[in-house]
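Anyone? Bumping this.
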Amino acid sequence: MLRGKIIMKENKKDIRKQIDSYVKGLLSEEQINELWTEFAKDPTLLDDLELEISVKKLIEEGAIEVKNPIPTKTLQLHKWTWHAAAAVALVLVALIQLFQVDSRTELDQFLAKSIPPDQIETGDGIRATDIIVTTADSLLNLGFSALISGNTQQALSLYGEVIENFDVEPYGSKAYTNKGIVLYNDGDYSGSILAFDNALSRVQDSRMIEEKAYWYKGNALVNIGELEKARVAVFEAYALDGIFRKPAFLLLQKLNYDLGYVDYEDFESQRGN
Amino acid sequence: MDYSRFVYAVQNNDTEELASLVSVITAVLIKFLKVRIGASHQDAEDSAQNTLMLVTEKIKDDKLNNPDSIIYYLFTTAKHDYLKTQAKIKEPTFDEVPESHSIEGDQLSSLLSEERMNILKVCLRQLKPDLKSYISYWFQNPGDETVVVADHFGISVSNAWTKKHRILKLLKECCEKKLKF
């Protein structure tokens, strides 16, 4: 009982440290997701988060004056020490400039490492009277359930069933998009590109699927080194002006830079080449 | 928050228990959507409601009963619902090149409330000078490791965390007291 209480207390301490890092912007995406799971388990932690954000903001805005800072011990140094320190600093600056390497970003930094399950297309939840539509809807939902349970093979098989038996819109494009996502996460980039192309050739009236397919197709193309083709796909995602506009813009800039297309404005006329 | 209680309440149609649990879960989902995706309060509220309806149906159909799966499902469904709704209502406007290259992070400031901030400001000003100095240093040097803060104030790392927690606790109590009156 006592041991349990100690563990809980320690756990809470760790979460407080995580909240501190979250407010300071030091957590990774995965750590943030884990922290939100803790918030869901104990919503009072959200009050702690709110308090920390507020305190940080007020301090940054200079809402409080610190009149008596803690006195720090000062050391009196000889005059020659300052001259020596200045000389060392100058030598260091010269050395840094001599050996400085142009610190460029890497293409990988702009790519989706893996595609989160919330990008999976599910049934619309609107049931039609047609039995074919209902079955396709349910298969997509079953695929989603299989995927979040970690059963990717079953998910692929369910999406395959939709493609084989219910290849009508919106189900065909949804199933191919999901297949592309699963294959991307498995590292089968060529397979995912093919699936996204299939989704794009079918999709009707869904900018969401179109944008998603172009964006992840572009990512997959970068992963296999097809940068020119990737540039065209990413541009399409960017031009659709949806939720991937910003990451698409960044990747596009990076691709343009790496491929030597400096004139970004002229991109539209170049992309057909 | 015990999610098995939620499952039990749905399965047994315990409306009283459900009402209290739903309001807690809804508040978490709204904050999640506002902070993680930058949703407006109204949109977050709509998506949180849709999500709870879907989750309730899933539990009733006996397709969802593990508490950890429920949390995961709640967050992913809420995000999915919100993005879907936004994609449906947003018209394409490809007529401008973005000026900023930066990716927006979590919208933590969306949790702030003006009323609470004003009260907190008063509470912060009422702190003893040494505590004020400590908490200011902590947040003015966000990149510093706790060991640096501890060293600056001549205390151990463990005491540095304890001191920070104590100050936040004082501020929390002060705010709660003022909000009551």
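Late reply, but here is one note on the structure posted above: Chain B has eight helices and no strands.
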